[in-house]
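Retry 2 of 3 after timeout on previous attempt. Resubmitting structure tokens to design endpoint.
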């Protein structure tokens, strides 16, 4: 009897725990907004804005989970391709729910997501590459799927080839303007050249005058001294050992020469002979 009583007490306690568990589960379900149902296959079947937003949030969580898992390169090629296809499928499904939310009067998540994607692309935070084919839906590669065989080559930009032009192609665009034969037709170049020439000439003259003034101020005495030294070197230091006439002797000789010329001009030869005889007698010259 004691064993049976213990068994009954255990059963009652188990039943109480089960009832408590069911009560906790029911309360959590009520807090979460009712029992969790299956997501509708078509977004257009949902007529409740809150439910549509809830299904969109659920898809976002699934996408985030798959994006985290696809970063592992050790999953294998087939697993990575399946996960990448699943992410793109969920992305298209999210887009349908966002369109349905707009129809039900909810916020425009499509415009917000497009702006966020553009900003992320500019900052380099977009983890995926687009493959647009014929204007159809966008297929994006994520994580390690970008390095799969045949995928990486799709997004490599071809190298730009530098094509060298032939001599005939280069000569095709050469005309008279290339050689400057018509530069003076408008008269602008002539005016500019005249102004530049006048300016250059004025600068050259000013520089020359400044150089001459500097030379005269600094090297005048030295140049004259050098000339004197050069003359003395050429003459070898010549010294006169005979008496040289001074200025008075030279003036007397000049005066006598002029007097002789005047007498020769205004006196007759006979008179000149008589004067010469008289000077000889008087011993005068």
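Retry 2 succeeded. Sequence:
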């Amino acid at each position: 009897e004691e064993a049976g009583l213990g068994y009954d007490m255990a059963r009652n306690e188990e039943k109480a725990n089960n009832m408590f568990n069911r009560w906790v589960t029911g309360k959590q379900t009520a807090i979460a907004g009712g029992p969790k149902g299956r997501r509708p296959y078509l977004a257009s079947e949902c007529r409740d804005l809150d439910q549509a937003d809830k299904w969109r949030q659920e898809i976002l969580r699934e996408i985030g989970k798959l994006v985290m898992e696809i970063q592992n390169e050790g999953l294998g090629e087939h697993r990575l391709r399946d996960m990448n296809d699943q992410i793109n499928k969920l992305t298209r499904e999210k887009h349908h729910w966002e369109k349905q939310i707009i129809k039900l009067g909810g916020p425009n998540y499509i415009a917000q997501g497009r702006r966020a994607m553009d900003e992320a692309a500019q900052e380099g935070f977009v983890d995926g590459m687009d493959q647009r084919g014929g204007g159809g839906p966008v297929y994006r590669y994520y994580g390690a799927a970008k390095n799969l065989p045949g995928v990486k080559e799709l997004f490599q930009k071809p190298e730009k080839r530098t094509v060298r032009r032939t001599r005939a192609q280069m000569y095709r665009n050469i005309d008279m303007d290339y050689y400057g034969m018509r530069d003076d037709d408008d008269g602008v170049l002539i005016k500019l050249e005249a102004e530049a020439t006048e300016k250059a000439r004025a600068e050259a003259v000013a520089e020359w005058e400044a150089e001459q003034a500097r030379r005269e101020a600094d090297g005048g005495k030295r140049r004259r001294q050098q000339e004197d030294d050069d003359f003395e070197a050429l003459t070898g230091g010549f010294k006169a050992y005979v008496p040289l006439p001074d200025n008075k002797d030279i003036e007397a000789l000049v005066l006598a020469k002029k007097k002789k010329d005047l007498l020769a001009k205004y006196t007759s030869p006979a008179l000149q002979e008589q004067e010469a005889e008289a000077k000889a007698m008087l011993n005068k010259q």
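Attempt log closed. The two ends are 198 Å apart (CA to CA).
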